[in-house]
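Hi there,

I know you've been waiting on this one. I reran it after we fixed the sequence typo, so this is the corrected version. Both the input and the resulting structure follow.
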Amino acid sequence: MTSQASTAAPINSSNNWVRWANLALMLYTLLVAVSMVGSGFKWAVGKEANTLFLFASHPVASLMIGIIATALIQSSSTVTSIIVGLVAGGLPVETAIPMIMGANIGTTVTNTVVSMGHARCKDEFRRAFTCATIHDFFNLLAVSIFLPLEIMSGFLEKISGWLVAPLIFEGNLSMKGLDFMGTLTTPLVNSTKDMLSTLTGNWGAIALIVIGITLIFVSITMMGTLMRSLMVGRAKELLHSAIGHSPIHGILSGTIVTILVQSSSTTTSLMVPLVGTKVLKVRDVYPFTLGANIGTCVTALLAATAVTGLNAVFAMQIALVHLAFNVLATLLIFGIPFLREIPLKCAEVLGEIAAKTKLAVIAYLGLVFIAIPAGILLMTK
């Protein structure tokens, strides 16, 4: 028995080293992919970059694009990384901010799908669906407060600009300490661009963007899988230690667990069956969910380090917008008792309705994540 145990330990250790190596490779792939999206965007439109997203210049239309894209892909990390790449290619930060907000809303569909696993038991489903949708209502409330404020004052753009200012060289928009990323990513991006330059018209640029987006999706998916396999024990420990303590402890634990597993959908979906089976209460997991919102910002910050040149500062700025939005929304909404209760009460009401008729779930998903955003997007063209 002893010899078998001693043999198993090196094998597990070896497997972990392979996982860490693969994780490093996927991180590099993410950085290259973001650089490809930005480079392809600039290649396609040149100096007319600001006009390409003219249809999204309306903040509400931009918000809807973020919601639909994330609802379809079901990864806010992927969408925000793509947005970072687009900003690196010339998309104005002002236009991208509502997209970032929309990505927060769209990512919560997974929770609702997980709650359907409790559909056979009415009471279980009511609790599970309430847990699943509290994330939705928090994000909807956050956007309904912060988007009008942003339109009127541009405060998120100003705050992120202030945060990114120390990274700027005087008279230059390259970022201090992050220029080494160009050495790592530029050769592969340029060689890919050279191979695609034989294509006529803008097809080369379009192909580079598509390759970049595909690599972002693959790298983030693989990073999430690898992080979960490497960190699942620590994440579970944090998860168990977070429940039943103070709200601040719950928020911090939710943030750390999401950073470890690289997926807010995974973090929040873990809570749904626990609430459905009455192991936890919705109010207990509420702060943990808010921490997941903050933890998912790390991917965009990593993606922004891949950008070099004139637009590097703007790429980092939009990543910081994502972080500032989630932190400020948590402080404001959870910090004010009246606002704190709104997502909870809305989720409870919707949970009661869904328990009575499952058609309410289909109607909710279809309206909030597809029909209403698509309708508004068509009207604002």
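Quick highlight: The two ends are 70 Å apart (CA to CA).

Best,
R. S.
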